[in-house]
Amino acid sequence: MIFQITEHKYSRFYDCDMSLFGAFPGSDTLRLEIKVPRSFGTYYAEMQIYADALDFPDDELKYIPLEWSGIENGKDVYSAVLKIETLTGGNSDKGLFYYRYKISGAQEEIFAGGEEPVELKNCGEAGDRQLLIFDDGYRTSSHFKEGIIYHIFVDRFYKSGKCVPRGDAFINPDWANGIPQYAEYPGAPLKNNMFFGGDLWGVIEKLDYIASLGTKTIYLSPVFEAASNHKYDTGDYLTVDSMFGGDKALKTLFEKAKERGIIVILDGVFNHTGCDSIYFNREGSYKGKGAYNSQKSPYYDWYSFSEYPDKYECWWGVDILPRVKSGSRSYMDFIFGKVIPKWMNMGAGGWRLDVADELSDEFLVNLRKTVKKINPDAPVIGEVWEDATNKVSYKKRRHYLRGNELDSVMNYPLRDAVIDYIRNGNGEKLRTVTQGLYRRCPKQSSDCMMNFLGTHDTQRILTVLGGREQGEMTNEELSTLKMSVFQRKDAIRLLKLAYALTAAMPGVPCVFYGDEAGLEGYRDPFCRRPFPWNNIENSLLDYYRTIGEIRKTEPLLVDGLFKNIVCREELFVFERTPFKKGKSKLLVVINRSERVLPLKFDIKISELISGDNRVNELELEPMTAAYIKLPADYEVTEENFR
What we know:
Number of domains: 4
Shape: globular
């Protein structure tokens, strides 16, 4: 049969229709309904559900019969009441399930599942359906959902001139055109001791600029004392690097940002330290004995040695980054007893956790407890590159979004899908990624996802959209490679479209410093060039500011529901609607075509990007986006875009 079967879920916990979601609190009771065309001749239906086999390999398949409960619009309605507690048995670790519906008809028997929000698909093609259970008390940051996140790589943002360089640091004086220090080839050894001189006092000087983008959260790359310019090789967790201004500069930034309604979150690099650190001290830079110097060191238990002292576990085999055993009791006592309290009591607003996949569940649970005890609204965001609801790391199912580890994660799946759509017109990928992602996640996690187009680990988004493929080019070739005038012009047009799309999705848009100014750059370290203060692409900056203002002031972009309407190569349309009750909804239209797109409505509309109020129609220019305010009960169909 042609699948026209839908699933609907009514939640007692939320007291509303939650059909768009597949994640619920442990105490919830769901009324499940499936609607099957009468022509199928259904005489029996049941849900077949089982716990995740990786965590619970011996769990038995459960069969839950559905009862016929009426006819609606030519479809038979079958329903069942499901108490979540009957699935989990009170076991908080039992939080991931998969299920399907067996539907017996007059001529055939089918199994329906898949990851569409409401429509069910043939399991043979789409697989089973996921159900995630989370803790009743799961709350995520309310402030973090507001405005945008501005991500700053401190050494390259702005230099105040107030900080004295270390003796072993090389300062590149060419802020405007200097090339970051690079290795002979990716992964080759590199000291990373060339600095451009950006510091926290410089960030403070530019707070008004940062706020003008709609910023409510600043995310700083690591600021603790370390040998490198990137600071992912922590030397001392309890000291801000003197080249960034020391503890005083960070405390002042917290205070000055707060005056503007902005929180500052720190990069927690807790999976590894630097070899040149007070804890490992391979280079002998610190007084006292590090783990490398003595097996009686108080830090020895933090690391794993195979042959002492020169063979030890490192992050991805990089010997300057010895990996820490995050499950070490003395290490956790140090991080949760000293590090987190010091910086949060000083004013840190939350944490982004580097390589969260490599931190133990015990570490993440205790970190979250420590953070939330000090500030219940402080976000804890993990660097996870895949779907965090069912992620497997080191052959272990992770429990990131079940209520006791992370608020949310960095949204790499969305970034990949947006880029593929803007560059190649892959609307089907964008549709399936967004619908599946937001269905599987708890809503509170979706609302706090860090939605970005670029980071310190990726090519600059402008280069991705308009530059040459880097292919097999060497670092030396990439160090000076830039777009032509025509490539750049086209890339800027595409970036505006990509940002408008990303900023309207559930989650929080995150801008990597300089993207809004037109900064180019290939892979690390060329994506980390200094901010082009004397060469800002003003049309792009103005566009980012417009979107930022909308994002900061439009409640529907903070916690509205998400629903795709049109997903085509040249047109992508979706809605953000009120979670429960509201008078308005927001229609987001992405015109990826090279033609003018007429939009017709039979009511007055308001276009937020242009600020225009119109009677009932709009001509959307080629390769542009529109945010359109509509009454909540106004039904939008493909007919509005013909």
